[in-house]
């Protein structure tokens, strides 16, 4: 489909470079932008330039921040001894929205996926391991509790591979490693659950409590 | 969902201001942009600023162009006496892609829709009527053929309303008005067609030709 202007071609190409946006959708969005006032298009564009210039990963946990440290790492009320490892910022946000978890995070920025060319070096793994370099602190001998790392990773092959890789790195440091429970989702029927989920929920059964 | 940075909030709001992009998708796209090199984000943003500054509607037909006139209106080989009226640039592009139509276009920029607050004044209707102000030219008395306007508008209530409104404006000017055929799509079964389409295809039957 030949567009009537080169500037439109460029804008559609740029829009279609976003993941999940095809050329038809890109054209629809570009036509929408053309109907806007010039200053609204300028603020639209500027927001992404400002974003890229101003937002960076937290050096400790790779959560995003505009400051030297992310708001969670900078919060003394968040338990530094409990670190929840997530694939992606969106997973962090989903857990934060619960308002339940009082520990800190580590955002890997992906999972190990040889098929997609993502290896351990592409993820924030070195910085995760570095957080547990102090053996006395990990063991809690300086009067705290021992350190716990919670894997909140996807249940895919890639997620499992990543969890295994991290476990091999963390266990020798004396870190207690846990993983979020897999099982039948609240409100779901047993008969509609897939076999792997049902098997895990049975294998990982807990003492019944009321 | 509270984002970890104000710049991210702004960028996600801007992305989610595009039609059909929800906040979850917007966040996904913004996280993608954050992974890009700074100069790639800058060209992404700049493309929309350049687009808005450089692309304007053709004063004759409201097709988009960077020049004084769109490439179709400026092409002396395109028949000025046959004008195809479309809702949207994308409809123009779909017809152009056929490589079949040798006339010109008129892009309304929408259809009359009182529910959405779109009235005739919001569409390029005045400029359409103005194209047929010269009665001698319309009648073809200066040795050409008479003028034809083809409605290629959507088959919705709004499309039909718009066609009727335009017809009332154009018929008194002596313009011959036609509309693209409605009927069973090529390759479709009769039994799966909706009743309205089947009825129209029967009512508008044509002499059989081989």
Description:
The structure is a homodimer of 210-residue chains. Chain A contains eight helices and six strands. Chain A is α/β, with parallel strands linked by helices. Chain A folds into two domains: 49 residues, Helicase, Ruva Protein, domain 3, CATH 1.10.8.420; 116 residues, Dna Topoisomerase Vi A Subunit, Chain: A, domain 2 (3-Layer(aba) Sandwich). In chain A, the strands form two sheets. Chain A has a four-stranded parallel beta sheet with strand order 4-3-5-6. The longest helix of chain A is centred in the N-terminal third of the chain and has 17 residues. The mean pLDDT of chain A is 93. At the A-B interface, helix 1, helix 2, helix 3, strand 2 and helix 4 of A face helix 1, helix 2, helix 3, strand 2 and helix 4 of B.
Sum up the structure in keywords:
2 domains, 8 helices, two-stranded antiparallel ribbon, homodimer, Helicase, Ruva Protein, domain 3, alpha/beta, 6 strands, Dna Topoisomerase Vi A Subunit, Chain: A, domain 2
Q: How many domains comprise the coordinates of chain A?
A: 2
Shape of chain A: globular
Residue-averaged pLDDT of chain A, rounded? 93
Largest interface: A-B, 57 and 57 residues
Give the neighbour order of strands across the main sheet of chain A: 4-3-5-6
Report the major sheet of chain A: 4 strands, parallel
Low-confidence stretches of chain A: none
Total strands of chain A: the figure is: 6
Helical coverage of chain A, percent range: 25-40%
């Amino acid at each position: 489909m030949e567009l009537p202007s080169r500037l439109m071609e460029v804008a559609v190409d740029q829009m279609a470079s976003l993941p999940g946006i095809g050329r038809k959708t890109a054209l629809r969005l570009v036509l929408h932008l053309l109907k806007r006032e010039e200053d609204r298009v300028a603020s639209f564009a500027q927001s992404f330039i400002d974003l890229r210039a101003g937002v960076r990963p937290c050096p400790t946990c790779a959560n995003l921040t505009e400051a030297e440290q992310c708001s969670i790492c900078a919060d003394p009320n968040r338990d530094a001894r409990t670190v929840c490892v997530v694939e992606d910022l969106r997973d962090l946000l989903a857990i934060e929205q619960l308002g339940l978890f009082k520990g800190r995070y580590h955002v890997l920025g992906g999972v190990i996926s040889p098929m997609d060319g993502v290896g351990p070096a592409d993820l924030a793994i070195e910085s995760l391991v570095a957080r547990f370099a102090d053996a006395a602190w990990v063991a809690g001998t300086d009067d705290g509790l021992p350190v716990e790392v919670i894997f909140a990773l996807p249940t895919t092959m890639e997620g499992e591979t990543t969890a295994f890789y991290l476990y091999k790195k963390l266990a020798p440091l004396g870190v207690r490693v846990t993983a979020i429970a897999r099982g039948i989702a609240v409100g779901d029927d047993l008969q509609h659950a897939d076999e792997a989920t049902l098997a895990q929920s049975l294998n990982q059964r807990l003492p019944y409590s009321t």
